[in-house]
TrEMBL record:
The lineage of its organism: Bacteria, Bacillati, Bacillota, Bacilli, Bacillales. The keyword Lipoprotein does not apply. F(1)F(0) ATP synthase produces ATP from ADP in the presence of a proton or sodium gradient. F-type ATPases consist of two structural domains, F(1) containing the extramembraneous catalytic core and F(0) containing the membrane proton channel, linked together by a central stalk and a peripheral stalk. During catalysis, ATP synthesis in the catalytic domain of F(1) is coupled via a rotary mechanism of the central stalk subunits to proton translocation. GO terms for molecular function: proton-transporting ATP synthase activity, rotational mechanism. This is ATP synthase subunit delta. It is a peripheral membrane protein. GO terms for cellular component: plasma membrane; proton-transporting ATP synthase complex. HAMAP family: ATP_synth_delta_bact. Keywords: ATP synthesis, Cell membrane, CF(1), Hydrogen ion transport, Ion transport, Membrane, Transport. SUPFAM superfamilies: N-terminal domain of the delta subunit of the F1F0-ATP synthase. It is found in: Cell membrane; Membrane.
Amino acid sequence: MSQTIAANRYAKALFELAKEKNVVSETVADLRQAKIVFTESKDLFNLLENPKFSADKKNELVSTIFADAQPIVVDALKVLLDKKRINEAVSVFEAFIRIANDAAGIEDAIVLSTETLTEEQIQRISSTFAKKVGKNSLNITNEIDPSLIGGIKLIIGNQIYDNSIVSKMNGLRRELLG
């Protein structure tokens, strides 16, 4: 069984439980934070996969680190530990977020800009581009990229909308040079 299949199964089960308990959006927020913790701390993975570290200590560590998270998130991590699948935690988080977003008609997007966008600008971009990709709204992450000179570059899944000055200058250069 591949990691993707197993991760999807765990994510679907967790989604159904979160839906049943009416905590889907809270669980998404907690899993986004957990993903950051797991991707930035390789030592945590090493510790949780270390056979010399007892299962009770691992469960206690997870409970402590994720004390503010939804109880179902902590329980899911403990199940992954018990089933020796903690190495798939990030894949489970990503699959859960994808399932929850699909259910809510939301798509994750990245907006690259030369400066931090205001909440109003983010909302306008979300409402305009969500319709183009057939979603209700976009969950936008704003990243700063000074090399754009001006304008924005929007990445939604595998689609890129580039309205940056650099892109326009490159297009003009190609046009002029033939």
